């Protein structure tokens, strides 16, 4: 495949940034999108040009480190992580536009790399449980109904990639926060902090300058782990219940 890339290049947070066009030849359709970027960077390095900075780690769709907007879609045309997107999803001769996540709360560090520390601070605000010291309890000590366990597991699959924020017209992180709140809220271990957790995490979300949720649903549509939109409804129920009790 021969492809043309339009890649966002930005030296740092204070740089205005610009789109730069590159041409690649003999791209294998079996390459992952990140492998294709590796090939581009090898070419740029040989030409004594600065390689394109992009986030990556496991490259197995597990860690959530990678993530770019490809042709206007978070993670690209397939519902998967960028590292698991393959070039066979494109055609010979295609022009592909590659940009970083666009959100005030995700400032660009360099090129396609953004600072997602806002997610870490939301989790630090309340995404934890009380852990008494001593011998670990038996696995069956706290029976959990299977529907609750399944819902907690589904929410726990969130990898914090930020695609939900990138896809949302308001740059809201509500699906991410709701996944963390729902995961712990469905388990008996998460009950002691349940009421305070949701208030603290939503307050921190607001402090990070994410946009408000208007239930458009683009977040769930692009989530590579399929976090359902109704987790936001559960967060809202927990939040209203906590506020009605004067918590927060």
Automatic annotation (TrEMBL):
Q: Where is the 4Fe-4S ferredoxin-type domain?
A: 149-179
Q: Where is the 2Fe-2S ferredoxin-type domain?
A: 1-102
Check the record and name the InterPro entries matching this protein.
2Fe-2S_ferredoxin-like_sf (IPR036010), 2Fe-2S_ferredoxin-type (IPR001041), 2Fe2S_fd_BS (IPR006058), 4Fe4S_Fe-S-bd (IPR017896), 4Fe4S_Fe_S_CS (IPR017900), Beta-grasp_dom_sf (IPR012675), Helical_ferredxn (IPR009051), SDH/FRD_Iron-Sulfur (IPR050573)
Asked if the keyword Iron belongs to this entry, the reply reads yes
Task: Give UniProt keywords alphabetically.
Answer: Iron, Iron-sulfur, Metal-binding
Q: According to the lineage, what is the superkingdom?
A: Bacteria
Q: Which Pfam families match?
A: Fer2_3, Fer4_8
Q: Metal-binding: is it a keyword of this entry?
A: yes
The cofactors required by this protein are:
[3Fe-4S] cluster; [2Fe-2S] cluster
Q: Describe the family membership recorded for this protein in Swiss-Prot or TrEMBL.
A: Belongs to the succinate dehydrogenase/fumarate reductase iron-sulfur protein family.
The name of this protein is Succinate dehydrogenase/fumarate reductase iron-sulfur subunit
């Amino acid at each position: 495949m021969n492809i043309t890339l339009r890649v966002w290049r930005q030296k740092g947070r204070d740089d205005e940034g610009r789109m730069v066009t590159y041409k690649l030849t003999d791209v294998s359709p079996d390459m992952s999108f990140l492998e294709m970027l590796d090939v581009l960077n090898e070419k740029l390095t040989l030409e004594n040009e600065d390689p394109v900075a992009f986030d990556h780690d496991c490259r197995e769709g597990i860690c959530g480190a990678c993530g770019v907007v490809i042709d206007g879609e978070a993670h690209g045309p397939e519902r998967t992580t960028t590292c698991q997107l393959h070039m066979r999803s494109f055609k010979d001769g295609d022009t592909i536009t590659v940009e970083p996540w666009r959100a005030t709360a995700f400032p660009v560090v360099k090129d396609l790399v953004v600072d997602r520390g806002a997610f870490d601070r939301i989790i630090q605000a309340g995404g934890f449980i009380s852990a008494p010291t001593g011998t670990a309890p038996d696995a069956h000590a706290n029976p959990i109904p299977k529907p609750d366990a399944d819902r907690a597991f589904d929410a726990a699959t969130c990898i914090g990639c930020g695609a939900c924020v990138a896809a949302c017209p308001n740059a809201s992180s509500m699906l991410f926060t709701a996944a963390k709140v729902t995961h712990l809220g469905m388990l008996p271990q998460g009950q002691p902090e349940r009421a305070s957790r949701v208030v603290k995490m939503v307050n921190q979300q607001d402090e990070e300058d994410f946009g408000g949720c208007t239930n458009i649903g683009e977040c769930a549509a692009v989530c590579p782990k399929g976090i359902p939109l109704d987790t936001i409804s559960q967060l809202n129920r927990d939040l209203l219940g906590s506020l009605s009790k004067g918590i927060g």
